[in-house]
Amino acid sequence: AHTASSVLTNLARVFNSAQSGLLEVREVKNILAIAVTSNRGLCGSFNSQMIKKIREELENPEKLKINRKGREKIESKTPNEELRIDFITIGKKGESSIKKFGKEIVASFTELAYLPKIDDVRPMARLVMDDYLAKKYDKVVIFYTDYVSAIKQETKVRQILPISKIDIEKQIAEMDILAKEYGLEEPAIEYKVEPSPKEVLEFILPRLIEMQIYHAILESNASKESARMIAMKNAT
Question: Which of 220, 162, 175, 124 minimizes the C-alpha distance to 7?
């Protein structure tokens, strides 16, 4: 992992000069949101907390409207009432609630709500990337539940697109901290990347999008099962 962080550090340097594709930062006028819920109930407040989070963000979308270019904030001039937010749903519970909010659901992947494989996620990730590259949307986020512990889960919103250099740097910093804790520190190495850092990034970035979505789904699955166990225990 520590070696991988060193490679990412070298690759991340080209972010400064990259201005297109999955790294392009635009003023936010149209947002695509992925919502991860379950297909059925009996899992405590798992679904209701997620629906509450989505409702709150829809009612006050100021944070959703912000994009970042490096450390610079790009504020959207679009009024809240004119901001377009479409959804991709994972789970029937979220799908039914979002319809009640009056939002358009561009795709539904109910089969991903329970223990999908990474290959199962790729069609949705491809749809997300294609729509972003076509400039149909200026920002893509995912609503999911983060598994903290068996008794604690947190609803979160994570930016998927545009890919943020700051997020990459945070991941690298976290990996460095873990490496130090486990005594895996290595001397700084300058990697030679072929054919070029830009071309390697163009290959890696779609995989990064897939893994971010997949990770959010797995976190939500773990949270759902934990919430279900607690609900069953409280019922007995």
Answer: 175
- Residues linked to residue 33 through DSSP beta bridges, in sequence order: 87, 141
pLDDT at 1: 44
Report the distance separating Cα 19 and Cα 109, nearest Å: 31
Dihedral in degrees, nearest 10, Cα atoms 34, 16, 204, 194:
170
pLDDT at residue 182, as a whole number: 57
Q: Backbone dihedral region of 42: left (phi > 0), alpha (psi from -120 to 50 degrees) or beta?
A: left
- The helices-and-strands tally (H runs, E runs) of the chain is 6, 7
The count of structural domains within the chain is 1
Question: What gap in Å lies between CA 50 and CA 201, rounded to an integer?
Answer: 33
pLDDT for residue 28: 96
Query: Whose structure tokens read 């009432």?
Result: 81
Rounded to 5°, angle at Cα 29 from 26 and 33? 95
The per-residue pLDDT for 12 is: 59
CATH number at residue 91: 3.40.1380.10
pLDDT of amino acid 227: 86
In this prediction, residue 7 carries a pLDDT of 60
Give residue 33's pLDDT. 98
pLDDT at 8 > cutoff 50: yes
Q: What's the domain range around 12? A: 2-235
- Scanning the structure block, which residue is given the tokens 């009612």? 59
- My answer on whether omega of the bond before 187 falls inside 30° of 0, hence cis, is no
